[in-house]
Design goal:
The complex is a heterodimer of chains A (287) and B (139).
Chain A (H helix, E strand, L loop, with lengths): L10 E5 L8 H16 L3 E5 L6 H5 L21 H7 L3 H5 L1 E2 L5 E3 L4 H9 L10 H10 L5 E5 L6 H9 L2 E6 L5 H17 L8 E7 L7 H13 L12 H9 L13 H24 L1
Parallel strand pairs in A: 1-5, 1-6, 2-4, 2-5, 6-7
Antiparallel strand pairs in A: 3-4
Chain B lengths: L2 H17 L20 H13 L12 H13 L2 H11 L9 H16 L1 H22 L1
Helix pairs in contact in B: 2-6, 4-5, 5-6
Classes of the chains: A alpha/beta (287), B mainly alpha (139).
């Protein structure tokens, strides 16, 4: 259906784990910046992960995006085609520049409402709207599009999985976290097997975030992850106060000078660089 | 501005108005009266006041033979905690489900959230209304 129509040279990935607080949004923002800065790619971020607008906060533009001229939620609505075909400059009215390179389509409160409304749409017509939007409006303008999805399986998430079949899953070390990946794989298998999605999402990159090298739990978790997911397990990202400090001031680690970063911040930044390179290689191989 | 632009902009603004607060306006809202003429939010706030006054119990009870057997089995087999942990993770809550009551709370919240998150939101709004009213009366 729609995924096959997306231009084959557009790299797409979605950040999704059915749980909050694992560093999904942080990772999405940092990998986007590295893709732009270190790989010279035009990157678009689409925030569908709730209404807090965390990606906008990451880049210090939360106050600017509180009332987008055209909210992204309208893409999921029955009004989208009318808007697309009749409004002027639609895409630019949805999109904001960040000061670190990637552009951002922010979340809006309507995403939750449209998630409810999609439940009333026949399944065969329900999940392709985001993919069609990416094909029609994004593919010709960008090299990479990264979706930050909700931390739960709802219609928005399923639309995101159908549109960007490569799934990036950060995890925090913990006793039940690998079970989250097992659950996620089951969800992806469900999407692959059901006709109305016409999509083949699969894990593209898994890694540990907020790692504390001082604890045995962290190192054991990393080993287990690498053992269970060879080929797609990526570099671990150290827990660092620089990350949260950066978020409070609207900066990623890439916006800090070296002498502003603790060792943990430098390690985390390098990890994000490695993860970005690994992800781009994987996405390129899968085109 | 052409008439077409005005119409499209009106549609966009109507969409924003309809979906503000995260729920479609045409769905039942917490501040819209339900079938009984009382909004869910106000009904929840009133229920808190009734609980405080001792006019309404704090516990939920139900009789269900099959669920009773299922939960007895879950406890005996040691699977109850795992079920509670799954619900806690899905709700992004701390995994600390020790008792049957803990697990039942999580499962019930999970089910309601999955079916209609707006109900939980209205419950939270009702709690806030109750707290605000209480604060005003004590001031």
């Amino acid at each position: 259906m729609v995924k096959n129509e997306i231009e084959r040279n557009l790299l797409t990935a979605c950040f999704y784990v059915p749980k909050g607080g694992v560093g999904k949004t942080t990772s999405c923002g940092h990998i986007a910046v590295s893709a732009h800065t270190d790989h010279d790619l035009d990157v678009l971020l689409i925030d569908l992960a709730g209404t807090q607008n965390d990606l906008a906060t990451q880049f210090g533009i939360a106050n600017e995006v509180t009332d987008p001229d055209i909210p992204v939620s309208i893409v999921f609505s029955e009004k989208w085609e009318l808007i697309r075909d009749n409004a002027d400059d639609v895409f630019n009215r949805m999109t904001y520049e960040t000061n670190e390179g990637p552009d951002l389509i922010p979340a809006d409160p309507g995403v939750s409402a449209e998630d409810n409304n999609l439940a009333n749409v026949p399944r065969e017509n329900r999940y392709g709207r985001l993919a069609a939007f990416i094909q029609d409006e994004v593919a010709s303008q960008y090299d990479v599009v990264l979706l930050d999805l909700p931390g739960k399986e709802d219609n928005i998430t399923l639309s995101g999985l159908a549109a960007a079949e490569n799934v990036v899953a950060p995890l925090k070390p913990g006793a039940f976290e690998l079970e989250q990946l097992t659950n996620l794989e089951a969800q992806l298998e469900m999407v692959r097997s059901e006709q109305e999605f016409d999509a083949d999402p699969e894990l593209a990159l898994v890694f540990t975030s907020m790692i504390d090298g001082r604890t045995n739990l962290s190192s054991e978790f990393v080993e287990e992850l690498e053992e269970k997911y060879p080929g797609i397990a990526g570099e671990s990202v150290a827990s660092s106060a620089n990350i949260s400090n950066g978020q409070s001031t609207g900066r990623t680690l890439f916006d800090f000078a070296d002498d502003e970063l603790y060792d943990t911040g430098k390690r985390a930044r390098e990890a994000y660089r490695d993860l970005t390179t690994q992800l781009l290689d994987t996405l390129g191989d899968r085109l | 501005m052409s008439e077409k632009d005005t119409d499209v902009d009106a549609i966009i603004e109507q969409h924003k108005e309809d979906t503000r607060g995260g729920r479609q306006r045409t769905e039942a809202r917490g501040d819209d009266p339900g079938e009984s003429g009382v909004s869910l939010r106000d009904a929840v706030a009133e229920a808190y006041e009734e609980i405080d006054a001792g006019d309404r119990p704090e516990n939920l009870t139900l009789r269900d033979r099959n669920l009773a057997a299922l939960f007895a089995g879950l406890e005996a087999s040691g699977d109850l905690a795992s079920l509670g942990e799954q619900a806690a993770v899905a709700l992004d809550r701390d995994v600390a489900s020790e008792t049957r009551a803990d697990v039942l709370r999580l499962l019930l919240r999970y089910a309601i959230t999955d079916l209609n998150e707006g109900v939980i939101e209205d419950g939270v709004a009702g709690l806030k209304t109750y707290q605000d009213r209480k604060a005003e009366s004590e001031f």
